[in-house]
Design a protein that fits this description.
By secondary structure, this protein is an all-alpha fold. The protein has helices at 2-18, 25-50, 66-97, 99-114, 121-131, 137-148, 152-164, 168-176, 181-208, 212-216, 230-240, 243-272, 289-294, 298-314, 324-330, 334-362, 367-404, 406-421, 428-437, 442-467, 471-479, 484-518, 533-542, 546-578, and strands at 217-220, 223-226, 520-523, 526-529. A hairpin with a 2-residue loop joins strand 1 (217-220) and strand 2.
Length: 583
Amino acid sequence: MLNRLLDSVWGQASSLLVAPIRRRRWVDLLVLAAFAGLTYALVFAGRQWTAAQVPEVTIDLSLHSLPKYAFLTLVRAGFAFAISLSFALVVAYWAAKDPLAERVLIPLLDILQSIPLLAFMPAVLITMMGLFPHSNLGLELSAAILIFTSQAWNMAFSFYQSLKTVPKELEETSRLFAFTWWERLKWVELPFATPALVWNSMVSVANGWFFLMVSEIFTLGNRSFRLQGLGSFVAVAAEEGNVRAQIYGIATMLLLVVLLDQLVWKPVVAWSQRFLVDEAAEVDRHSSWILQFLRKSRLWRWLEHRRQMRLLSARPKAPVILEKTRAKFRHPGRLASWFAVGALVGLLLALSSGTIALVRLLMQVPLHEYGHLMEAGAASLGRVLLSTLLATVWTVPVGLAIGLNPRLSKQLQPLVQMVASFPATILFPTMIVALAAMGITLNYTSILLMLLGTQWYMLFNIIAGAQAIPMDLREAADAYHFSLWQRLKTLYLPAIFPYLVTGWVTATGGAWNASIVSEFFKMKGNTIVAFGLGSKVALAADNDQKPMLAASAILMALLVVLFNRLVWAPLYRLAEDRYSLER
C-alpha cells in the first residue's frame, strides 16, 4: 500500500517537473522542493546522531554555523515532542479506560509533574551513555528525555481529561453505530480531544525550550558532554565572553521561534478548529497563510482527495444497535487487558527496584549533611516564593487587561505566545554577567532568573480565567456602576482565583527547575554559586557525587510534593468550593 502511494505521489511529482510552468504550478514545485530539503535535512541529522562520539565537541562560534546548529536543535526538540505525544496518548488512554491503571498512573503522573526531573539528568545521562558508549545516540536520547519530562505530563493530563469529558451525545452516537474501540478512538475521542491537545502541546513545547541549553551542554565530574545546537552555542559564547556570538545566538533563537509559530503552530491551530464541538460559543477563527498557500498546490489537493476518499470508504454505512458490541468498543480485548496488567506489574517492579537503589545511595550521605541540605532547601524555597510573588504582581493586571478586552487579546495574545516560547535559559549567561558587573550577586540574580521561567505560566492562566468570566456578570457590574476596586474585589479576582491557583502551581514547579540552572553558573573557568538546594544539585552533578546528588534531588522532590499537598491542594479545594463559576 505504501509503495502504491509513493508511486502515485512520484507520478504526480514527475508530471509537475516535466510539464511547462503554468499558473500556480510554481506552488507545487515549492512544495516538492521543501519536501526534498526536509528529507535531506533529516538524513543529515540522522548521521549526526549515529556518528562516533568524540571526547570533546568543539562549538564553532562563527555566524555561518548557526543554521546548522538551529536545525539540530529543532530536530532534537521535534523528536522529544514526538515521544511526548506518543507517551501522552498511550498512557492517558490506558488510565482513562482501565480503572486499575487509573488508580496507579494518575497519582504517579501527578507526582512526576511536581518533581524537578532536571535533578535526575545525571542518572539518565549515565544510563544512556552505558547503552550507547561509542555514538552520539546516548547524548541525543538524554537530551530528548530531559525535554520529554517537561512536556509529557501536561499533554497526558489534557488527553485524559478530554477522554473523561466526551459529550453524552457523542457517546450515544458511538453506541448507535456499534463502534469498536479503535473506531471510537478514531472518530470520536481523538477529534474531540484535538483542540485542547493542540493548545497544551503549544504550552508544553514552549516549556521544553526552557531546557534547551541544559540538555545540550552538561558537566558530570571531570567530563563535559556537548551536543551541537543553539543552546551549546550560547553557553560556550557566554563562557568565553563572546558578546557578539551571544547576540547572534539569541537572535537566531528568536527567529526560530517566530518561524515555528508561522509554519507549524498557526496552521495546526487553524486545522484543529474543525473539531470544535460547541458551535454556539463565540470563537475567533484562526487563519494561516501557509495553509492557504498549500491549498493552491495541485499535489496537496490530490493527497487531500485521496485521504477523504479513504475516510469515506471506512465510515460506517448504517446505524445498528447490538448489545454484544458495547463491550467490544469499550475494551480493546482480552489480550490487551492481559498486556496492560503485565505492563502495570512491570512498572511497579521497576519503581520498587529504583526505590531500593535510591535508598542505598541515600544511606551513604552523612546525617549532618541533611541539615545543610534543609537550610539550602529553605533558601531556594524563599527564592521560589518570591519569584512567584513578583510574577503575580505584574501578571494579574496585565492578564486581566488582555483577557477582558477581545480586541487587545486578539492583538497581543499571539505576541505573548511567541515571547513565552523563547527559552529564558538562553538569556541567563548574559543577565548574570551584566548584573554581576553592577555588583548584584547570584543570590539575588537567581530570583530574577526564576521569574523569567515562571511568569508565563501565570499570565496564560490569568488570561484564560479573565476570558471565562460570563458576560452577564460583567454587564451586571456595568449596570451597578462598580468602581475598578469593586470589580476587582467582587468579580475579577474571585472569578480568576481557580486559574490563579493553577498558575501558582505550575509557576512554582518551573521555579524549582530554574533553581538548578540559576543558582550555579560557570564563566571563563570561574564558578559562581548561590546558596540553595538548586546549587547543591548542580555542584553534586558537577563533581560526580552521586549520593549527594540523590539526597539533594530527593529533598527537592519532597519539598515540592509536600508544598503541593499542604498549600496548593487546600487552595484548589477552596477555589472549587467557593469561587467556581459552575456552582
